[in-house]
Amino acid sequence: MIYFFVGFEQVAQSFSDKEKWMTLQVKVDSIHSVQYNQKPKVYSFNPNFISDYKGYKLGMSVEEIDRLLSFRKQNKYVNSAEEFQEVTKVSDSLLKVISPFFKFPDWIQNKPSFKSERKEYAQKTDFKKEKIKVLDINQATQEDLIKIYGIGEALSLRILKQKEILGCFVSMEQLNEIWGLSPQVLVELNSHFKTVVPSDFRKIAINDASLKELSQFSYFKYALAKQIVTYRSMNGNFENIEDLSKIKGFPVEKAKIISLYLEF
Q: pLDDT tens digits for 95-149?
């Protein structure tokens, strides 16, 4: 009979090492499996600064990357996903995948749309031009005046009151004398109105008018009216506005408009 002696401690140690190795292998395989199935995380980025490697990782072709780099060499920037596609010519499908990660500066994202504002302003202007025809300012109603942007109830009544005081407007320049009308509103008024002196408008006979009649004229104060009457009685009739402007205190800067109210 032959006896074999087996080192059970050695066998046990062998099985123990193998068990450890198997356990470690399972962990490694598990990590590989997770890494294989997990998609790489993509962080937000400014597409203006995509490098060759970054573009390759995003799925862009060499030509598409080169187009972007050439564009940037001109010191130009893309400010939206649409502009990025216009420059690089990437496909719609690729743009759909990568554009959610685009991050542009806050000032670009929050900047007002000047094109839309200009378009809206143009539409408003066209609307007003369609609604308002060029009218005689002396025939304008309060409703006509309020249609002008910048004129409300108060200003429209002020214009009508001034027309009543003067009898009529003889020049659109007289609107400059009305308090509260801004330069922009005056431009609009001149674009939509004109002056037409009524055929029955009665002018002031400067050589026959009484002191009371002259002093009631909007452009003459009582003191000036008195001097006109005195000058007339001492020197005879006025031949023209130049003669009248020789009177002390006469508003020479308004001589042209005043002459349209007078009859010599």
A: 999 989 888 776 555 555 544 445 554 555 454 445 558 899 999 999 999 999 9
| Domain spanning 204-263, CATH architecture | Orthogonal Bundle (1.10)
Q: Note the pLDDT tens digit of each residue in 15-24.
A: 566 566 556 6
Beta bridge partners of 157: none
132, burial (CB in 10 Å: exposed 0-12, middle 13-18, buried 19+): middle
Q: Quick one: pLDDT band at residue 11, thresholds 50, 70, 90?
A: very low
Handedness of CA 156, 157, 162, 167 (dihedral sign): positive
Q: What is the mean pLDDT of residues 227-235?
A: 95
Count other C-beta atoms under 10 Å from residue 209's C-beta: 21
For 115-194, the fitting CATH number among 1.20.81.30, 3.40.50.10420, 1.25.40.10, 1.10.150.320 is 1.10.150.320
Given the structure tokens 């920037």, which residue do they identify?
77
> What is the C-alpha separation between 113 and 101, in angstroms, rounded?
23
For the ranges 1-5, 136-140, 219-223, which has the lowest average pLDDT? 1-5
Tokens of 56: 């390759």
H or E segment and range at residue 162? helix 153-166
| All residues at 6 or more sequence positions from 144 whose CB lies less than 8 Å from its CB, including other chains | 132, 135
Domain ranges of the chain: 1-111, 115-194, 204-263
Q: Rounded to the nearest 5 degrees, what angle is found at the Cα of 161, between the Cα atoms of 217 and 206?
A: 15
